[in-house]
Amino acid sequence: MNNLFNLSLFYSLMFFVYFVKCRDNTLYCGYTNDLNKRIDSHNKGKGAKYTMKRRPVKLVYSEIFETKSGAMKREYFLKQLSRTEKEKIIMYKTI
């Protein structure tokens, strides 16, 4: 139980950048401090405007950051990439 609590605490102090694939096969990139809750929000239509009419969404990629600033910078970088470049990151989990 103690290890589970420590893991929960660890993840509660982290930030995530993620890609979801929408119903229409488009990709959406965002950041959050609670990945599971954010994906759930997207699928309930309470997430970003972009994903509201493209539900359901499926998480296809995520990265962990220690700071909100780091996650936001990475999100900005990823959003500048072409669809092909984004798909390579998702496929190979690198860049």
Secondary structure: elements and pairs:
Blueprint: H1 2-12, E1 15-21, E2 27-32, H2 35-43, H3 49-52, E3 58-65, H4 68-79, H5 83-92
Antiparallel strand pairs: 1-2, 1-3
State the strand order across the main sheet. 2-1-3
Count the E strands. Answer: 3
Q: Which structural class matches the secondary elements?
A: alpha+beta
So what's the overall shape? globular
For the sheet with most strands, the description reads: 3 strands, antiparallel
Between the first and last Cα atoms, what is the distance in angstroms?
35 Å
Question: What is the helix/strand order?
Answer: HEEHHEHH
Portion in beta strands = 15-25%
Poorly predicted ranges (pLDDT <50, ≥5 residues)?
A: none
- Going by CATH, the architecture would be 3-Layer(aba) Sandwich
**CATH fold topology:** GIY-YIG endonuclease
Taking Cα atoms only, what radius of gyration do you get, to the nearest Å? Answer: 14 Å
What distinguishing features does this structure have?
single chain, 95 residues, alpha+beta, GIY-YIG endonuclease, three-stranded antiparallel beta sheet, 5 helices, 3 strands, 22% strand, globular
Question: How would you describe the overall organization of this protein?
Answer:
- The chain is of the alpha+beta class and 95 residues long.
- The protein has a single domain, classed as GIY-YIG endonuclease.
- Helix content is 48%, strand content 22%.
- Strands 2-1-3 form a three-stranded antiparallel sheet, sandwiched between helices.
- The radius of gyration is 14 Å and the shape is globular.
- The N and C termini lie far apart (35 Å).
- The mean pLDDT is 91.
